[in-house]
């Protein structure tokens, strides 16, 4: 493995048991994501994109194969160890945002930093505010998820994924609810971070305009990742 690869998976297989039948969603997936690289993953609905992202992010374990995050084998770790590695190295934007309903936008974004030992509340608030401003939500800091639109919630989730300055960010349909202009803002933010901080991005998307702005586009077809 090259040291520049922040995320690698080798011969990844995922099978689900459905009654007596076994469904092989991922057959043989190999991927190498370099520091600062931006990759789009496309594929039809049900092709296994979310399944793959969940394995890469250590939210689920593969049936076979391994996942290395910043050189560490996340797929073989115990749950608490995986959680720590995720919190320090990875940002994750879920297909369905998973914000905490009882907390404000600002608190939701600040949460991953607040979970760290010895943080300064003032600094955390400043960083969360800055990111929410970057995604166009400086006027929605005190709103709770229930008081935000779908696209606004999605942007809060993006800010939350970036607040820890992860080396790698996985995004599942991040612009699904966004208009073209707002989607472009998110794309610009990704481009800037990939250049300035060498953050790597892996984006699952149906948005071909967004996909084509990435460094590489890969397609999930019949359980394998191929160049699109
Ligand atoms: N926990 C599970 N148990 C059984 N089958 C599952 C499970 N999770 C997903 N699947 C199946 O795996 C396949 C891939 O699902 P996945 O959610 O990864 O697709 P996707 O590419 O993200 O689709 P979409 O574009 O609609 O979000 C689907 O056929 C789905 O039914
Ligand atoms: Mg999906």
Automatic annotation (TrEMBL):
Domain spans labelled ABC transporter: 7-228
What is the topology of this protein in the membrane according to its UniProt annotation?
Peripheral membrane protein
Q: Where in the cell is it found?
A: Cell inner membrane
Q: What class of enzyme is it?
A: translocase
List the Gene Ontology MF annotations in alphabetical order. Answer: ATP binding; ATP hydrolysis activity; transmembrane transporter activity
A cellular component annotation (GO) from this entry: plasma membrane
- The protein in question is named Lipoprotein-releasing system ATP-binding protein LolD
